[in-house]
Amino acid sequence: GEDVEQSLFLSVREGDSSVINCTYTDSSSTYLYWYKQEPGAGLQLLTYIFSNMDMKQDQRLTVLLNKKDKHLSLRIADTQTGDSAIYFCAERGNNYGQNFVFGPGTRLSVLP
Amino acid sequence: AAGVIQSPRHLIKEKRETATLKCYPIPRHDTVYWYQQGPGQDPQFLISFYEKMQSDKGSIPDRFSAQQFSDYHSELNMSSLELGDSALYFCASAGGGGLDTGANVLTFGAGSRLTVL
């Protein structure tokens, strides 16, 4: 079945860049997503990328996709304490109503 | 902008009781998803609906059922509650655009926290 893997923890210093990595197994994945979850809150969509793209940039966020290796990364430039949260990678195919499969989440801690 | 509305936000039940969670998707969204997130876990897909029909099914126990109504809101019914059902239940909606836009972006509600005692 489909599987999405992420490292569970990442610590960075404020002002540094954070890179959160994700690998997935479903070669038919059409869309790949990054969601952010703060404690006790819902999941907030940060950005997403289509499988025919290899990079997407949105302000401090850069998403890189290596479709051959099924590897997705999220780079956060100039990481701030407010970026401390759990970051979930997710993937899905191209059909309406099709399930989104989430990774286990990476807990990002930003140290002052 | 309108978001996904879930109710109730918090619910406390005892074992073997029944609970119903409600979800009101973003207007013009035609797809609703239900996820269960246990403490320290990633969201686990339960079930989804597209245009009021079940479209995909995940790890939803037989004790749970769900449906999407004509106004696109959805309800998750949970019976014979067990301690392990204690979790955050998220509803998410998608749709309202072509394949390149809203149809493929999930917007989550704030979640309903169910505690089973």
Molecular structure report:
The complex is a heterodimer of chains A (112) and B (117). Chain A is built from no helices and 11 strands. Chain A has strands at 4-6, 9-13, 18-24, 31-37, 43-50, 55-58, 61-66, 71-76, 85-92, 101-102, 106-111. In chain A, strand 7 (61-66) and strand 8 form a beta hairpin. In chain A, 37% of the residues are buried. With 117 residues, chain B is mainly β. Chain B has no helices and 11 strands. In chain B, the strands form 2 sheets. In chain B, strands 2, 4, 5, 6, 9, 10 and 11 form a 7-stranded mixed sheet that branches. In chain B, a hairpin with a 2-residue loop joins strand 5 (44-50) and strand 6. Chain B is globular. The mean pLDDT of chain B is 89. The interface between A and B is medium-sized, with 26 and 27 residues.
Write the layout of secondary structure elements.
The complex is a heterodimer of chains A (112) and B (117).
Chain A: E1 4-6, E2 9-13, E3 18-24, E4 31-37, E5 43-50, E6 55-58, E7 61-66, E8 71-76, E9 85-92, E10 101-102, E11 106-111
Parallel strand pairs in A: 2-11
Antiparallel strand pairs in A: 1-3, 3-8, 4-5, 4-9, 6-7, 7-8, 9-10, 9-11
Chain B: E1 5-7, E2 10-13, E3 19-24, E4 31-37, E5 44-50, E6 53-57, E7 64-68, E8 74-78, E9 87-94, E10 107-108, E11 112-116
Parallel strand pairs in B: 2-11
Antiparallel strand pairs in B: 1-3, 3-8, 4-5, 4-9, 5-6, 7-8, 9-10, 9-11
